[in-house]
Amino acid sequence: MSASSAEHAHPQASTYFKVAVILTVITAIEVLIYYVPAMRGVLVPLLLIFSAVKFAIVVGYYMHLKFDAAIYSRLFLGPLTLAAAIVIVLMLLFGHFIDHGGVQSPT
Amino acid sequence: MSSHAAVQAPETSLGEPHFKVGFWTFLGSECFFFGTLIGTYLSYRGRDAAAPFPHHGPPDGAGILNIPVTSVSTFVLLTSSLAMVLALAACQRGDRRKTGLWIGITALFGLIFLGFQAYEFTEFYHNGLTLESNLFGSSFFVLTGFHGAHVSIGVLWLLSLFVINLREGIPAERALSVEVAGLYWHFVDIVWIIIFTVVYLIPD
User: Nearest residue of A to residue B46 by CA position?
Assistant: First the structure.
């Protein structure tokens, strides 16, 4: 390991186990609310939030972005942001987020 | 160049190892790769004229996705990430036995995940969902197929590290080789976190 890498202390094993428990609990909640009809109205935003939280936890703790040098965060989060923008633009181009008044847009 | 020399790459002017900087750059490019596939899936979402539908098609079509089975495979992949990070911690401590143990467990969990995916693909094929059956079939198999290919590459990488550790050991000074393999593995995990939500849990 390089000297610079050694400067960024990684978490203890106990932290990794706690992270694993949190990820499991969030996943269980995601699956649970999928089957609850009363949650249909808020299902999509809730699932997106849970997914983003899990994503951030894995990247921050397991991939050590929270503890490593800032250059790694820039190298990853820059392209990630652009990729997310591409997804949104693609969906806009294909007519998502637009009310068609019950008429299905052509594929 | 020997494998040892490759791992002991000189630091960049940023003060960080070449290997790690380069690999994070690669992971950035992978964001575009999977972003495009996920964007394509979402763009075609809900536009299928013919069954089988992913969730519940119009008017009373049955959904083909098996959420309980995929939830278990998701749990397996998430747990493999825990094993991977414990392998890195063991390697950084110089604990050769536990390094091998956790790398082996990570690879095993990866293989179990691939087994679940093979089962799912086979079930879908027998239920009439193929690459050519409808838009869902095309975008689903391409997206999850490429993810499965990444998991397969990760398993091969881990098995290589397992054998290297078994034969000569991976000393703490070379823990970067395990760390970078771990970065790849966790990336595969976060891509699945998104796929599980977008494809399996969000209804049409």
Answer: A104
